[in-house]
Amino acid sequence: MKVYVSNLNDYSYCPMRIYLTRVLGIRPEVSDGAMMGLMGHFARRELSLRQCRLIKRIDGHDELRNSLLEELEGILRDMQFIYKNKLYNIDVYDYIQKLRRELQNEIQILSKKLCLMINDLGVEEATKRITPWRVEFFINSENLGISGRVDKIMKNPGIVPVEIKTGQVPEDVWLGDKLQICAYAMLLEDKLNSNGSIDHGLVEYVRMMEERPVLMTENLRRSVLRIRDAIIDILDGEVPERCNNDKKCNSCVYKSECFDI
Q1: pTM attached to this predicted model
Q2: How many domains does the structure of the chain reveal?
Q3: Is there a single domain that holds both residue 140 and residue 114?
Q4: 15 and 138 in one domain?
Q5: Are 185 and 166 contained in the same domain?
Q6: What is the spatial distance between Cα 230 and Cα 167, in angstroms, rounded to a whole number?
Q7: Which of 14, 78, 173, 260 would give a disulfide with 243, using CB separation of 3.0 to 4.6 Å?
Q8: What own/partner pairs with CB < 8 Å and gap ≥ 24 does 38-43 have?
Q9: pLDDT tens readout for residues 102-118
Q10: How far is CA 181 from the centre of its chain?
Q11: Which domain, by its residues, includes 84?
Q12: Domain final residue pick, 130, 151, 174
């Protein structure tokens, strides 16, 4: 069975997530809070993917901020069509009103950071710096037994995978995020860069407007393959142990189904 890159992150949170979702096929009901988080993820991700085209046509902080706010309105309008399969049969209006207020504050920070970059590098170089070579690039490797869709690939000049994260921001990089970005690097090496290695990737925490580097160490690569094998065992019918972390369990959307097993 195929292992998806996102499964590595799920496994690092709790191995039972793999069993519940991929073996039992459980899809829990989405609470209001979870729906806000989901839509916030979609909107922040779209804003990250689109910002490179905005800085080419602006002059100054106020103009950039206004362009970002205008782009936000387009994202909020288009979101229900882009992510129709995930937002099907959901009245998104109330969520959008709350999300607009939340993201307007974040755009103030984003516009300042982009202006500082433009002032430091110039428009042309700043545009190159944030313009991806590929976006939402699907990769499947029979050699690795893993497949996934990397959010962005930068080329400057080497290949650098970028994973966009919209949730809570850690002090460093979450282990699950490290595993994901390492898996993408390994997939890209297998498919695009067979004559050389990718030495690092980036995790973009959009709430802080920060890109944090992750080195592709031998130990991290081993962890990707070890967890891949553990996931395959689960898909073959092995029931894993719960993580037994009260904080994780209490906030988990699969809590009721998990403890019924």
Answers
A1: 0.87
A2: 2
A3: no
A4: yes
A5: yes
A6: 26
A7: 14
A8: 38/86, 39/79, 39/87, 39/92, 39/95, 39/96, 39/99, 40/99, 40/102, 40/103, 40/166, 41/166, 41/167, 42/79, 42/82, 42/83, 42/86, 43/72, 43/75, 43/76, 43/79, 43/99, 43/103
A9: 898 888 888 888 888 88
A10: 9
A11: 32-130
A12: 130
Give the span between the Cα atoms of 228 and 197, in whole angstroms: 20
pLDDT tens-digit profile of 8-50?
999 999 999 999 999 999 987 766 777 788 788 888 888 888 8
In this predicted model, what pLDDT tens digit does every residue of 44-101 receive, in sequence order?
888 888 888 887 767 666 788 888 899 999 988 888 787 777 666 667 777 888 889 8
Strand 159-165, strand 200-205: pairing: parallel
Q: Are residues 20 and 139 in the same domain?
A: yes
CB 107 within 8 A of CB 115: no
142 with 251, same domain? Answer: yes
